[in-house]
Design brief:
Elements lengths: L3 H13 L3 H14 L7 H13 L3 H14 L4 H13 L3 H14 L4 H13 L3 H14 L4 H10 L6 H10 L7 H17 L3 H18 L1 H14 L8 E3 L11 E7 L5 H8 L7 E2 L5 H9 L10 E3 H14 L9 E4 L8 H7 L4 E6 L2 H9 L12 H21 L4 E5 H6 L1 H11 L60
Parallel strand pairs: 1-4, 2-5, 2-6, 3-5, 6-7
Helix pairs in contact: 1-2, 1-3, 2-3, 3-4, 4-5, 5-6, 6-7, 7-8, 8-9, 9-11, 11-12, 15-16, 18-19
Length: 489
């Protein structure tokens, strides 16, 4: 057997390079070879990291729990176990282990930020604010913490803090991602003073920092969303369709469309009625399953989809994350990009319903551009947003004609002006029984929201503001020749 230290170093390097399966194979072989000897805690922790990298939650949890059996005071193990419970939507245990982690190391910055995010996403905003303030005391130059806190407390970024921030961003040692959040904050400050031209300038810099931070990956995903999947969504051919697939009995509701179009509110309304509905949030399961199992889709000619392979991948992920626990098999999935995959989804989930949320398209464009949607490569320039929106509009028209019984388009303005009438229509479409509780989602203490709307959704339904984005619309004039759906007025 090779030297243990060398093996641990080798597998650690493999994990860093995302060669998770190879690392797991080496580590499991190592455990077999030393089964009569006390196993080093590092072996279990590396297995946790590798399985976590593969998003195999239950296996990751198993090895993390083995680590805690050896050392139940380790703040990193406790914090990571809390993260797993959060992924499983076990909020009671997630909170318990976050707090336990901080009991063992009260200045653990990652743990403090994690529990602040936890409280923010579950609507406990005062508690979130307190932990963000602790994080700032520990790390006063970490601008992303200021950004998160400013979302909870609108008055936090006062003139003094803006001045401090402006000086801080001159420091060359500040990471690009932190500078990006800094420019988002400066943009927000200019917006509050109606300096819209200056706001756009700051937003452009912020988005450039974010895009260039993961340049290779962002270019790859941008190419996929702009040049590959938009020319294939209506040309898929299917093989190995499994008529005994366990997922056929599910009743999923897929919320699709563009970010900032009211999708989070629709998700909250659907999960707040009498019927128990598993609220899965933005799982990205479908896209993940397609991309990981069909690498050949990147070739322009290939449109073949192996449904058996997709079924297996999705079912494994859903079971691992305990997404199939509800008896009625009803769940919502708010992975908005699923409008590209409607044809595939209906082969896997023939009972699927789709809620296409939408709003004034120009308002939507600027609502997206004002947000730090770091994981969406197409949101970091007006030009890329417009191209994505153009594809979305064409694809929705196509599928609404092809599957009119499966798709309901729901307008944000209509929902905010006639909430009862519109939510009743929504419930009827989903074959659910409506009651008043559906519109009281904002008062729920058990509603996790992991999107940019997590603060807004804690308030009662607000009327649509038609004036909010008027100052920006002149920016779109130069694109009129390319996109006829832009308002010429």
């Amino acid at each position: 057997m090779d030297n243990l230290k060398d093996i641990l170093k080798k597998t650690s390097n493999l994990i860093d390079k995302k060669n998770y399966k190879e690392a797991i194979s080496i580590l499991l072989k190592l455990i077999k070879e030393i089964k009569n000897i006390k196993i080093d805690i590092k072996i279990y922790y590396l297995l946790y990291l590798a399985f976590d990298g593969l998003k195999e939650i239950q296996s990751a949890k198993k090895y993390l729990e083995k680590c805690l059996k050896i050392n139940d005071k380790n703040h990193i193990f406790l914090n990571n176990l809390a993260n797993i419970y959060l992924k499983e939507s076990n909020f009671i245990k997630a909170e318990k282990f976050y707090l336990k982690s901080l009991e063992n190391k009260n200045d653990y910055l990652i743990g403090i930020i994690n529990i602040a995010l936890f409280y923010e996403n579950t609507g406990r905003l005062e508690e979130a604010k307190n932990f963000y303030l602790k994080a700032i005391n520990l790390s006063p130059k970490q601008i992303s913490i200021y950004f998160n806190l400013s979302r909870i407390d609108k008055n936090f970024m006062n003139e003094e803090r803006i001045k401090y921030l402006s000086e801080l961003m001159k420091d060359e040692k500040i990471q690009s991602v932190e500078k990006a959040y800094g420019y988002f904050l400066l943009a927000k400050n200019e917006r509050s003073q109606n300096n819209f031209t200056k706001e756009i300038e700051h937003l452009e810099v912020a988005h450039q920092y974010i895009f260039e931070m993961n340049l290779k990956k962002n270019n790859q995903t941008l190419n996929y969303w702009q040049n590959i999947i938009p020319i294939k969504y209506d040309k898929f051919s299917f093989i190995n369709e499994n008529k005994k697939n366990e997922l056929l009995n599910c009743n999923p509701i897929f919320i699709i469309g563009l970010p900032r179009s009211g999708s989070t509110m629709v998700e909250a309304i659907l999960s707040s009625g009498e019927t128990i509905i598993e609220n899965l949030g933005e799982t990205n399961i479908l896209n993940g399953a397609v991309v990981t199992t069909h690498n050949e889709l990147k070739n322009k000619e290939n449109t073949k989809i192996d449904l058996d392979l997709i079924n297996y991948t999705i079912l494994k992920l859903m079971k691992d994350k305990k997404y199939l626990n509800t008896k009625n098999k009803i769940f919502t999935d708010k992975s908005l990009e699923n409008f590209f995959y409607i044809e595939i989804i209906l082969r896997i989930f023939p009972k699927a319903k789709f809620i296409n949320t939408f709003r004034n398209i120009e308002d939507n464009i600027f609502a997206i551009f004002q947000q730090a949607l770091t994981k969406l490569s197409w949101t970091h320039s007006i030009e890329n947003i417009l191209k994505y929106v153009d594809n979305y509009l064409k694809i929705i028209v196509y599928f609404k004609k092809k599957y009119p019984e499966n798709i309901l388009s729901l307008e944000l303005e209509e929902l905010t002006s006639k909430p009862e009438e519109t939510s009743k229509k929504l419930y009827a479409f989903c074959n659910l029984k409506w009651n008043e509780k559906a519109l009281e989602f904002y008062s729920r203490k058990d509603l996790p929201i992991l999107t940019a709307s997590n603060i807004q959704i804690r308030k009662n339904i607000q009327k649509y503001d038609h004036e909010k984005y008027k100052p920006y619309k002149k920016i779109l004039k130069k694109f009129l020749h390319k996109y006829p759906w832009i308002n010429k007025g």
